[in-house]
Every structure is written in structure tokens, then in C-alpha cells.
Design goal:
four-stranded mixed beta sheet, alpha/beta, five-stranded parallel beta sheet, single chain
Length: about 300
């Protein structure tokens, strides 16, 4: 491996933009890396999007390196022959392998900068929920530069046909675990009863809706199914129990390829949320991603802000 683990670990302590450019007349590769590794899936996703925009402004070709700079979604060993965990789910922005970029000798290592001023969700704008202006800018960018792998999209389409296609569907996102504690850059999500009240307003006594529930706590699934019965469905995914204050992306679980599956599950959740007719949610990167994938086609979006 050209860019070895020792250098990667040292860079944790000296995380500045580093240029290794030998010929400015040739392609310059911008290697997108991120520390700390404990950020959530769609935090990493929007971080990458912002860095792609930054690279484009400089005329550099983007390469995402989550091999030498692993995330919480990286397996210890290769998964299906893949070491770079970004490539578990997405294509490379400019279809360039990281080894090619490093071997060129013509590359820039990114600093740990989330370029919120370049039009991606940030907490000082709209409490962090994606704006319509951002969607108009990011939808085409993400669909062209970092498309989701076909087999994941095919699974999403299959789930849509199975659960949603013949009825109107309300997508509901409830974020619990670590987000229930007030943090510097995060608002506390709305309570489950506040979400449920908004669902009731949309239903208006009708029962011909489906409710797709996306959440990280088993108790929330049980609560919704007890109230709404067979109207509710959720994907088979790892969830926290017992009101844990630790995010599920930071929890270890004894199953094969747990880290890969955590990423796949939240990606499928966001994709399926984007196919619903309505969205009721709090502020989170998951719902921002769903709104972006939906491309402003929801009949109604209800975002319950900070409490």
C-alpha cells in the first residue's frame, strides 16, 4: 500500500492540506480523507460532497480514501475484495482508484475541513436541515459524481414495490440514542409523540396509508406498531435498545460485516424515505440526504426543529 498506515496515523495529529505535486501540467488528484473516524454515515457523505465542490473549484480530480483513513463503516479486512469503504456503497467521483492517484505523485491530501460555505447542510443554516437551494445544487452533483451502486438501488426498488408502490406512504424518521442529549452542534430531536401528532394530521382518520418508519431505537418501532398496526413497516436493521445514549454507528454487534451493514442499512433507509409521498422528521443528515435524493418531489415535508 503506497500511503501506509503509519503515515495515516501520524496525519491525525498534523491534519493540514498537503501538496505532493511534481507536474502541474498533468492531472492533479485531490484525495479526500477524514478524521475523526467516529462521524456518522451521512456526515461523511456531505463532507465528501463539500470536498468534491472544493476540488472542482481548483481543477483537481477527486478521489475518496476511506482505505488508509477508515471510518466507522470500514471492515477490518476487505469486503468482497474492497478495502476502501467508500466503494462499498458509491462510485469514485472521477472513477479513479486511490492507488492510481498516489502512484501519480501528483496529488493533494485534503485537510479535515467540512466546507459548509459551499452549499451543503451545516448547523448554522436552517439548524442543519438541507435547504431547497442546496437540493437544487447537490441533486445533480451527487447523481452524476457519486452514484449509489446498482445492486443497492435495485434492492431499494424491490422494497419499494413490496411495501409502498400501491399506496400513499408517509416516511417518518425518528432519531434517538446519542442525539437525545444536547450537544454543541446538534439540536435535540422531536419527541415521538410530536412526530405521531403530525402523522395523525396527515392521516385524518384514513387507513389507506403506509407508514415507513426509519429509526435507530427498537422501542420507537414497537411504539409506532402498537399505535398504527399493519400500516407501519421498517427495514430489518440493527437498532439500539434500552434507551442507550450511544449512537448505533458507534455500537459493536456480533454479526458478520457489521460495519458494512450499518452503512448499507442507513443508506437504504434514506433512499426509501426519498421514495415516500410525505416526510415527517426532525433535523438530521439522514433526512437531509432523503430530501436531496427526493429532489423536492414530496407532496409535503414536515420538519420539526429544535426543542
Amino acid at each position: 500500500m503506497i500511503h501506509n498506515w503509519i503515515e495515516a496515523k501520524l496525519d491525525y495529529f498534523r491534519y493540514i492540506e498537503k501538496k505532493h505535486i511534481t507536474d502541474r501540467n498533468k492531472d492533479i488528484y485531490y484525495i479526500i480523507r477524514r478524521k475523526p473516524l467516529w462521524e456518522g454515515f451521512f456526515s461523511n457523505y456531505f463532507y465528501v460532497l463539500s470536498n468534491i465542490i472544493y476540488a472542482d473549484q481548483h481543477g483537481w480530480k477527486s478521489v475518496v480514501d476511506m482505505q488508509n483513513y477508515p471510518t466507522l463503516y470500514s471492515e477490518e479486512n476487505e469486503y468482497h475484495g474492497i478495502l476502501n469503504s467508500w466503494e462499498y456503497y458509491f462510485k469514485q467521483p472521477d472513477r479513479i482508484h486511490i492507488e492510481e492517484a498516489y502512484a501519480s505523485g501528483n496529488y493533494v491530501l485534503s485537510k479535515n475541513q467540512y466546507y459548509g460555505d459551499l452549499g451543503v447542510p451545516v448547523y448554522h443554516i436552517n439548524q442543519g436541515h438541507i435547504t431547497e437551494e442546496m437540493v437544487r445544487k447537490l441533486y445533480l452533483l451527487q447523481s452524476e459524481r457519486i452514484p449509489v451502486h446498482k445492486e443497492i438501488l435495485d434492492e431499494c426498488s424491490s422494497l419499494y414495490k413490496k411495501y409502498i408502490s400501491d399506496q400513499e406512504c408517509i416516511g417518518v424518521h425518528i432519531r434517538g440514542t446519542d442525539m437525545n442529549e444536547k450537544r454543541k452542534f446538534h439540536s435535540i430531536p422531536p419527541r415521538i409523540i410530536n412526530i405521531s401528532n403530525k402523522v395523525d394530521e396527515l392521516l385524518e382518520g384514513r387507513r389507506n396509508f403506509r407508514i415507513f418508519l426509519c429509526c435507530d431505537e427498537i422501542d420507537a418501532v414497537n411504539w409506532f406498531k402498537e399505535k398504527y398496526g399493519d400500516m407501519v413497516f421498517s427495514l430489518n436493521a440493527y437498532r439500539s435498545s434500552g434507551h442507550s445514549s450511544v449512537g448505533i454507528h458507534k455500537q459493536n454487534f456480533n454479526r458478520s460485516h457489521h460495519h458494512y451493514l450499518l452503512g448499507r442499512e442507513v443508506l437504504l433507509d434514506a433512499l426509501l424515505l426519498s421514495k415516500c409521498d410525505y416526510l415527517i422528521c426532525g433535523v438530521s443528515n439522514v433526512t437531509s440526504a432523503a430530501v436531496m435524493f427526493n429532489n423536492l418531489n414530496y407532496k409535503k415535508t414536515i420538519v420539526l426543529k429544535q426543542r
